[in-house]
Structures are given as C-alpha cells and as structure tokens.
Amino acid sequence: MSEALASGGAARWLVLGAGGHARSLLDVIERRGDTVVGVCGEARGPAWSVPVLGSDAELAETAVRTGSLVALGIGDNTRRLELLRWAESAGLRVPALVARTATVASTASLGPGVVVLEHAHVGPYATLGRAVVVNTMAVVEHDAVVGDGSHVGPGATILGAARVGPGTLIGAGVRLLPGVRVGAGAVAGTGAVVTADVADGGTVTGMPARPLEASR
Could you give the domains of the chain? Predict the structure, then answer.
C-alpha cells in the first residue's frame, strides 16, 4: 500500500504529463503547500507556470537530483499505468497524492500513483488499486474496490462494497449501487445509474444503465 501524504508537507513533486489532467494535479499540489519542480510531456494550452521537461530521462534525472516525488498527470488509463511501471522501474517514488480538501478514511488502502482530487471522499476499508484517479467531488464508499488504472469521474459515486475492475472508466455523475460489479475495461457513461453487474469491456448508459447496444 502506498502511504497517502498529508497536506502541508512542503514536498517537491514532478508531474508526468502536460495536459489538462496534469494542470489539475499542479493545482492540487500547490494547494497542499507543496512545490511542483516541473512537468514532463507535450505542453498544451496556456503557458505553464513551472518548467516543462523535454523527456522521461530528463524527468528521472531531475527527480533524483531534487529528491522529488512523481505524480501521474495522465488521463488515459492504459498510459497512466504504463508510466507508473516505468517510474517504478527507474527507482522513482510515486506515492498516492491526496488533495487538501479530500477525505480518506484511515482504514482505506491506496495504491501507488493514486490521485484523490478536491472534495473527493474515500470511505472506510475502501481499496484503490495502482494509478487510480478519484476525480473532483467523487465518492468511493466503504468496502468498495477500484481496480488498477481505473478512473472515477467528477461527481461519481461508488456505493458500499461495489467492485470496479481494472482499466475501467466511471464517467462523471455515475452512480454504482451497493455490491454492483463493473468488469475490467468497462465504461459507465456520464450520469448512468448502474443497478446490475457490467461485463468486462462493456459500455452502459442511462437510468437505469443498459448496455449501449440495447439503449439505441
């Protein structure tokens, strides 16, 4: 289990990624009172307020030289998990990153590379696998499990003892009812209310959620 860092620790961070998700992490880190040494990736959008590093090798060298932690600022589930493996193989530290306004129960388990964004909640005995994103105002309730490389979108709620497989996207505003199981690589579309299990690789939408082909 990766130890979630408490706010106000004045840690140094490097962010892997230079797109929208990386900007969210930059804000989270700075609100914690920590320092972002730089970001690494193809910079997009407005100018960055921190240095943009040109390569993974430069990031690794900078992380070692500055004693920085690494945060995974990549929205794509597969790529984020790949980068966690790369960072670990390079000997870099990739702890869980928890926003200052988020709440995480003391009995919850957070894997390496997890990010819990502003005003999100992770309940008692919940388990977040490796490189999981719990986005802004999302809730992962007691005893729920979210598999490696999955993303719980803004405002989504995973209720008690629900299970989310690896590489899964739970869209913004989705509700997973207690005990529901969502398979590996599945997608629950924005606003869906998931009342029954979802197969591996399946896509469901609607209220109540139905397989995409059945909802047309």
Answer: 12-95 (3.40.50.20), 96-211 (2.160.10.10)
Q: Which of 21, 119, 121, 142 is catalytic?
A: 142
What pTM value is reported for the model?
A: 0.92
The rounded distance, in Å, linking the Cα atoms of 216 and 65 is 55
Question: Does residue 21 have a known ligand-binding role?
Answer: no
Would strands 157-158 and 175-176 be described as parallel, antiparallel, or unpaired? Answer: parallel
Per-residue pLDDT 10s for the chain (216 aa) are 444 554 445 899 999 998 999 999 999 999 999 999 999 887 767 778 898 887 777 878 888 888 899 999 999 999 999 999 999 999 999 999 999 999 999 999 999 999 999 999 999 999 999 999 999 999 999 999 999 999 999 999 999 999 999 999 999 999 999 999 999 999 999 999 999 999 999 999 999 999 987 444
Look-up of token digits 């399946």: 202
Task: Tokens for 159, please give them.
Answer: 């209720």
Is 113 labelled as part of a ligand binding site?
Answer: no
Spatial separation of the C-alpha atoms in residues 150 and 155, rounded to whole Å: 15
121 noted as active-site residue: no
| CA dist., res. 89 & res. 83, Å (int) | 10
